[in-house]
From TrEMBL, chains A, B:
Its EC number is 1.1.1.85. Its main location: cytoplasm. SMART domains: Iso_dh. InterPro entries: IsoCit/isopropylmalate_DH_CS (IPR019818), IsoPropMal-DH-like_dom (IPR024084), Isopropylmalate_DH (IPR004429). NCBIfam families: leuB. HAMAP family: LeuB_type1. It comes from Zhongshania borealis. This is 3-isopropylmalate dehydrogenase. The record marks Y143, K194 as: Important for catalysis. The lineage of its organism: Bacteria, Pseudomonadati, Pseudomonadota, Gammaproteobacteria, Cellvibrionales.
Amino acid sequence: STQRTIAILPGDGIGHEIMAEAVKVLESVNARCELGLNLEHALVGGSAIDAHGTALPEATFELCARADAILLGAVGGPKWDKLPVAERPEKAGLLEIRRRLDLFGNLRPAILYPQLADASSLKPELVAGLDILIVRELTGGIYFGQPRGIRVLENGEREGYNTYVYNESQIRRIGKVAFEAAQKRGGRLCSVDKANVLEVTMLWREIMEDMAKDYPDVELSHMYVDNAAMQLIRAPKQFDVVVTGNMFGDILSDAAAMLTGSIGMLPSASLDVNGRGMYEPCHGSAPDIAGQNKANPLATILSVAMMLRYSINEPEAAQLIEDAVSKVLDQGLRTGDIFSPGSTLVNTVEMGDAVIAAL
Amino acid sequence: STQRTIAILPGDGIGHEIMAEAVKVLESVNARCELGLNLEHALVGGSAIDAHGTALPEATFELCARADAILLGAVGGPKWDKLPVAERPEKAGLLEIRRRLDLFGNLRPAILYPQLADASSLKPELVAGLDILIVRELTGGIYFGQPRGIRVLENGEREGYNTYVYNESQIRRIGKVAFEAAQKRGGRLCSVDKANVLEVTMLWREIMEDMAKDYPDVELSHMYVDNAAMQLIRAPKQFDVVVTGNMFGDILSDAAAMLTGSIGMLPSASLDVNGRGMYEPCHGSAPDIAGQNKANPLATILSVAMMLRYSINEPEAAQLIEDAVSKVLDQGLRTGDIFSPGSTLVNTVEMGDAVIAAL
Ligand SMILES: CC(C)[C@H](C(=O)O)[C@@H](O)C(=O)O
Ligand SMILES: CC(C)[C@H](C(=O)O)[C@@H](O)C(=O)O
């Protein structure tokens, strides 16, 4: 096959450790399946601030822009939390990549691995077999809306303000991602909004309703965001695909991931209109355990699989990795976050090695 | 004691049934404890639209404005969902009372009744003894921010927009409610924001931080809203008091309530600067079971207790009601929403009668 480039951005905190394992796995399938992938590394986030004074150096962005796919670890940490928000790893690094590459389609699966059924804080019968896909709009809404800022009022006190805004085409393009995902899955799509209060989500609801006519095989429903948060806790298996805006998606996808009790297992994809994208674990940079060889590398390893499937079009290689992960779980190997009595505690590197061995 | 007025607003759906039971209980303690409360009824929401063409008739508002406290059932239902949002029961009724009376301080306790430990979807050990108070700002933020609407862009497509805005004094006054509540409880306050992305919540965080100096006995922490949604599911007992804005509070308070598995048990208060307020159950108008004598009246009955405690200053009468509710739970009486095998299924009226008997 032709030479393709993967941008490898470890980021900060545990990002380095988990990425090292993911790269081992990627190199292994790259050789074995002759994928012809060329891995190029670059700094982003706090590590880029330390080395180059900016969270997204132009060389890093240039690599991201020409790569066939991006694999990201995680960014941020207390070391950079004193910086103005606009310069921090999250906003100047992560959100800038999303925005500049227009990675508007965020896919966040929340899957309960049968081997980890006990890890959930919910009762087993409520989550057994859980398999939800949250589709979150990622480059619009209140995250990027203008005007925004903090201004001084006439009476001398300050006021902070942000703008929650979506236009029709932004809603349609994320709707398309969600309807198509529902077609490939269980055929049910739940659009989450707050259309009883917010005008921007009234438009959202209207457009989703309009699009439903073009997808007669998808059953569309609507739910208010407060109810969605409740229903995720009460009966999460009622959902198939959920589509929502950037802010609600941030909250609901994290809640959904936590329902599985193993956020250290969950990958995510952020795609542009052509299906090019960035892949990263759902979890953060976990500064509290960084550098301790404790972190769970499986979410990043599964992000590699997701990348091979969605952006590199190598579903067999993806399946190999997913099967290997399933095998190490069957073997009872667990990092601390998913450990339960009776299983075998392993560290980050041991987990990566076990996946390689299982490949 | 002097003559005091309570506005009774049953609202829509199950509102009528649950309010009838709450009024029975209130009349009973009113007589027994000689509270001198004068109950005046009025229509709000859909029932007011049907009778008077508007969700908040002036006579209803006038009663609310002069009453010492307001007891509300619930508003809304499919019958009025075809109306323009601005005329619907929720926005033109409920949100208008909140706004016009400036009921900015919303207290939403999430308490797990020991008798109902099984009702939670979380594992018992994670929620046993759960007792969180969510303090939600209720008359500001994106719910009421201007500008808002749906406009046509130059290219002919539409764009929806809302404004998330808080000024310093709005933040300070809800902060005061929250810090004082934390002082009276476990001394811990967690302020929830999205200060890594939204400027309005950067100001929020800064003001909370500043106020903390005046409350050395309260331990203030901050959490991003996505993490808060996860932590509520992972380990809800880590929280004592949570303070947040209107939109995040809507989502998190419903999630917290659902953790208890018995949202039909939870009251709420919405207070102005003088502690005058409106009391209502956390649940909605449940059109699906309206008129069937099935709804759980205990959240409304407990709202009566909360009202007597916070706005009417009759803590003993409040305690009487709370003890009576605890007694009927001990007796194993359950409405459908909290029913579990081995307990006795009762209907709305029977539950109300049992509370009266236990008084
Ligand atoms: C780090 C933060 C800015 C980011 C977000 O809010 O989008 C993160 O929470 C996520 O969900 O990827
Ligand atoms: C009915 C709706 C407008 C309301 C809100 O969002 O505030 C409700 O969800 C609540 O929490 O009281």
